Amino acid sequence: MKTKNLNIIIVLGLVATIGILIAQLLWTKEAFHLEEKKFSQKANIALLEVVKKLYQGTTSELPSANPIKKIANDYYIVNVDNDFEPKILEYYLKAEFTKFNINTDFEYAMYNCQSDEMVYGNYISLTDKSPEKRTVYFPKHKNLVYYFAIRFPNETTYLFSSLRFWFVLSFALIIILLVYVYSIYTIIQQKKYSELQRDFINNMTHEFKTPLSSILLASNYLNKQEVIQKDEKLEKYTEIIINQSKKLNSYIEQILTIAKSDNAPMKMELKEVSIIPILKDVVENMQLKHENLTVKIITDKEFFIQADEFHFTNIVYNLLDNSIKYCEDNPTINITIKEENNHVKLDFSDNGIGVSSKNLNFIFDKFYRIPNSKTNDVTGFGLGLYYVKKICTQHHWKISAQNNKGKGITISILIAR
Predict the structure, then answer these.
(1) Of 341, 348, 308, the residue nearest 417 (C-alpha)
(2) CA–CA separation, 417 vs 304, rounded Å?
(3) Cα distance from N-terminal residue to C-terminal residue, the chain
(4) Is there a contact between 336 and 265 (Cβ–Cβ < 8 Å)?
(5) Is the Cα torsion angle 78, 83, 86, 87 positive or negative in sign?
(6) Which residues on adjacent β-strands are paired with residue 77?
(7) pLDDT per residue over 30-69, tens digit each?
(8) Residue 82 to residue 144: CA distance in whole angstroms
(9) Beta strands of 65-153 (E only): which ranges?
(10) Is the pTM of this model over 0.90?
């Protein structure tokens, strides 16, 4: 993925997550205000019912104006304009608060007109069965004679407890945001290390190519000398130097190709390609290197596909080369070409050592080499099948691998026509 696209996705994701978190916090704040308003309404209705109960059995009439006045968020004054007993008041307060589901502690006090002060009060705990005695103090109010005051000391805590779900959800969103930020940080760090690794490989392979070219040039010149050609041992050593240098050069080219394709998609020059001539040409070249190689091309007709001829040839070469490397006997490879559901299917089946079922899904991974006794004897970097998978993906082909019933594996490529 390009850096620009990755940055856009990161920013959009971060903005979306922060936006959801801010919206959640605003909704929680609004829910708290609604809960506070609801509590105030219930307290008003409950206190009004208490006033009605206090007037029952008396000759006095209920006051026409609203007797309840809210002084603060948790403090109410109730003007009853009539004398009443404190114990009766406490009984009615408990009953009405329970009726309206106001399950929080409260304290009350009454005004004594003889002493002109709030003299009687009590702290009522609905949660603690044996509460500690507390000092209850209420200021007096002018222009009122018969009244009592109510305060809810734990109103804020009570409201918060009723909004537990909202706070849990907000906390969960904060955790999600932190995890997202940490994940983004980790991705950026991994991307940075990946770029450093790719730059190191590119620089390393380029630095190798210069002395390697000099070795090839000097060894080719040396091999043409008459003195070398007359000495069988010297000629053999020179050929070893040339062959190994060419092999090393091919590995370097392969690493450069993979590194380049990781940085940007490889350009494909698609054209109509005949499959069988390419297969025969690769097989012929492979048999020059491996005289004991047997390859059978099984098909009933010629097939044409849209492909990049160069990369398709490399796919065939890599698959054959991989089968030869991991074969303990004389390698025998069957290449079957057939038509299947409007697709051309190529099956490369060998008689090699095979792959365990648990490792079969990893054979197309970069630098992966099948762990077995044969691995240490095989040259290469584990890039061949990774390259094959990458080219198939670029062509929009499907590639898969499965173990044969007897020996070896079969790698299948499904090509849309």
Answers:
(1) 341
(2) 8
(3) 28
(4) no
(5) negative
(6) 69, 149
(7) 888 888 888 888 888 898 888 888 887 676 677 677 788 8
(8) 11
(9) 68-72, 75-79, 106-112, 117-124, 147-151
(10) no
